[in-house]
Design a protein that fits this description.
Largest interface: A-B, 72 and 71 residues
Shape of chain A: elongated
Oligomer: homodimer
Helix content of chain A: 10-25%
């Protein structure tokens, strides 16, 4: 039994650790962990790159979303523009690059909304989400085999779509409610 | 080459599909997908059970969070009470059960905030998040080897903690901003 040297927690007694898969965007590790009670349990860990998402608001006050097919869930869904942080890239650079690739704008102003784990129970993926406005046209080529459609919705339209369960992406809902919570009170 | 019969999308031409791992809370499938351009690409899919989260608000207007160690990220983090939907369980039942196990209350009133994918780019996990209030004491035993601490924070305290980057869980941020966006305007 060994304890990982960089552990922040005394409970982290890993008896055994197996890499089950090394892939394109994820790796899978299966750890056997010994608890203070003495029992041993399996913990599956999906290792995933960091990602960014951006809530872009245009000068008409509309929120720009993309719609694309997601293979994992076999659905077309609306999402804020998003992407994986490449090796050596700062997440803010990723955000500006992804905006240009996916919606054809770059932001004059950008601020961080939050940095969070998408599913800390089993996955290391960390997402940084930004708010962006003062948009100017600037198009970079899309990734090959991405089939992205771009939409702009007034906040009231988005509220209606949420009520109709048409928005199914966690980071998109988080960013939208953040925006609604900080809007000037009428 | 075959097309999954239940596919909602014509692009879903799966050339090959391999189950790489079958586990406790996740399975891993690796698909080779043929795109309209003719190119073939690998898509990794993590199959994960559905989950619930609950934003409980007590009669002092405080939000109840739990703090627990998460092995995947090797950190103690604050989260809304949450858990996996068991076989045959309705998500609302899961929510009421998890509240009793993790914080020792059951709700008199509960409403759905949203149902969303935590990371639709690679994972099937769907989370239903509820708002709960009118809490009454009702304790069920915790799962073995869960070491959960319970906290109650005023919304203003939580806002400060978020500004200090002390809240790192996506579903918790989403639920909190939903709550702030709908609070009566002062």
């Amino acid at each position: 039994m060994f304890v990982l040297s960089d552990s922040k927690n005394q409970l982290r007694n890993i008896v055994r650790s197996d890499c089950k898969y090394k892939g394109r965007i994820i790796d899978l590790r299966v750890d056997t962990v010994k608890f203070p009670s003495g029992s041993e349990k399996v913990r599956e860990v999906v290792l995933h790159k960091s990602a960014v998402g951006i809530l872009p608001v245009n000068d008409r006050g509309e929120i720009i979303l993309v719609r694309q097919y997601r293979h994992a869930i076999d659905e077309d869904i609306y999402e804020i523009p998003a992407g994986l942080v490449e090796e050596g890239e700062d997440p803010r650079e990723t955000a500006v690059r992804e905006m240009q690739e996916e919606i054809g704008y770059r932001p004059g102003h950008m601020e961080e909304i939050a940095e969070f784990y998408s599913s800390p129970g089993f996955c290391t993926e960390k997402i940084t989400v930004y708010y962006a406005d003062e948009l100017t046209s600037s198009k970079l080529p899309e990734d090959e085999d991405e089939y992205i459609k771009v939409f702009a919705f007034a906040p009231e339209e988005l509220e209606k779509m949420i009520a109709e369960k048409k928005i199914k992406d966690g980071k998109t809902l988080m960013a939208f409610y953040w925006y609604m919570a900080r809007r000037p009170q009428k």
